[in-house]
Write a structure and sequence with these properties.
Elements: E1 16-23, E2 31-38, E3 43-47, H1 54-61, E4 69-74, E5 77-78, H2 84-90, E6 92-95, H3 107-114, H4 122-132, H5 134-138, H6 149-161, E7 167-171, H7 179-194, E8 198-202, H8 206-212, E9 215-220, E10 223-228, H9 230-234, H10 237-243
Parallel strand pairs: 3-8, 3-9, 6-7, 7-8
Antiparallel strand pairs: 1-2, 1-4, 4-5, 9-10
Helix pairs in contact: 3-6, 6-7
Length: 248
């Protein structure tokens, strides 16, 4: 897979692959024949207009929705149709856009809950994440409901990282945030990538996401329309003509 020469490190190959993935909610399929790859240490972006099926794709990869056709491969292993908890144990962490923290629990308790599958090293992992997310250390005793939107998103990301995943799926992590917190979210995503995690980001903030992505997929009406290095797609004539008026 080509790269665009930005900050992402060199990768040995994809850790997450979908092949011809088709899925929906009982009626006509929402996504059709979707094939993507995500590689360690890089951001893979999935962008497109509302209703394109981006979030449905993440839910299918993580076992929330069973695919009608196609495969999900993790490190070459076929994990298609496994339950979400099984996929977490295998190394796929999913941070949904909403209901991604326990509002009545403290920050620290949320992190402990995020590490429920761990058999050892819970305290050490929490300390590592406090180093990555220093705002969370300062707020460790506060209930999650008292955090700002940006802090909650940071907490949700940290909870996902408690299981030491090889793949982290983020559904619109910057939605509703101020520019300052958007920049902070992307800074943390870069830090996560630097540890070798493959990060897959679904976002509405398309301009910034494409600028950050080593590789990106443009979805339209449930199908892959285009793919390539994120910064290159920002200059692609079709993307500019069709979407630049809607990109933010």
């Amino acid at each position: 897979m080509p790269t665009s020469g930005r900050w992402w490190p060199v990768s040995s190959g994809p850790v997450l692959v979908t092949r011809g993935l088709t899925a929906g909610y009982g009626g006509p399929p929402i996504i059709q024949d979707i094939s993507i790859e995500a590689t360690p240490g890089r951001v893979t972006a999935i962008v497109g207009p509302n209703g394109a099926g981006k979030s449905t794709l993440l839910r299918t990869i993580t076992g929330v929705i069973r695919p009608q056709q196609g495969q999900v491969l993790l490190d070459g292993e076929d994990v298609t149709g496994l339950a979400p908890e099984q996929l977490i144990r295998k190394g796929i962490a999913y941070v949904p856009q909403v209901q991604n923290v326990f509002p009545t629990l403290t920050v620290h308790e949320n992190l402990e809950m995020g590490g429920y599958t761990r058999t050892s090293g819970l305290r050490e992992r929490i300390d590592q994440l406090y180093a990555t997310f220093p705002d969370l250390r300062a707020a460790m005793k506060r209930p999650a409901r008292t955090l700002s939107g940006g802090q909650r998103n940071m907490l949700a990301m940290a909870r996902g990282l408690m299981v030491d995943p090889s793949v982290l799926l983020l559904d619109e992590p910057s939605t509703g945030l101020s520019p300052r917190f958007i920049a902070a979210v992307w800074e943390r995503i870069r830090l996560v990538c630097s540890t070798g995690v493959a990060v897959v980001v679904v976002e509405q903030n398309t301009r910034q996401t494409l600028a950050q992505a080593a590789w990106a997929y443009v979805m339209v009406l449930g199908k892959n329309r285009l793919d390539g290095p994120g910064p290159d797609l920002l200059r692609d004539e079709e993307v500019v003509n069709l979407y630049v008026g809607r990109l933010t």
